[in-house]
Specification:
Elements (H helix, E strand, L loop, with lengths): L1 H9 L2 H4 L5 H10 L1 H16 L17 H8 L5 H8 L9 H20 L2
This protein binds zinc ion (ZN).
Length: 117
């Protein structure tokens, strides 16, 4: 599943502008991969999974956490992008499988960034 989406993302100027570096990279290294993924799961569950998100499109900051950067890079930042890029319909609560999928995409992007830095 991931190959195809990463291929499409790499062709987007906007998405490929996001890199893990500076403060966010430091934070990632200090906390470690597993803890960062726990944060990812928390963010996705609270900010992306609900059926109705009043500030959808604005709920993900552009910096200050490696997961936020990853979300913009992978178009998992809001339900609008999730629908457009990943074909996950908005207006419905994310299933457990969909949450796992999103966390997986974020994990893959982070792992890629770290191996390239
Ligand atoms: Zn978005």
């Amino acid at each position: 599943m991931c190959e195809e989406i990463f291929n499409r993302l790499s062709k987007s100027k906007f998405r490929s502008k996001f890199k893990l570096r500076g403060k966010e990279l430091e934070y990632y290294k200090t906390r470690g991969h597993n803890e960062i993924l726990n944060h990812a799961r928390d963010f996705i569950t609270s900010r992306l999974a609900p059926a109705d998100i009043p500030n959808d499109g604005k709920q993900t900051p552009f910096k200050n956490h490696p997961v936020f950067v990853a979300q913009h890079a992978t178009a998992t930042c809001c339900r609008g992008c999730l629908e457009k890029w990943h074909g996950i319909k908005k207006g419905e609560e994310l299933s457990q499988d969909e949450v796992d999928y999103v966390v997986n995409v974020i994990e893959k992007w982070l792992a890629n960034q770290v191996s390239n830095s």
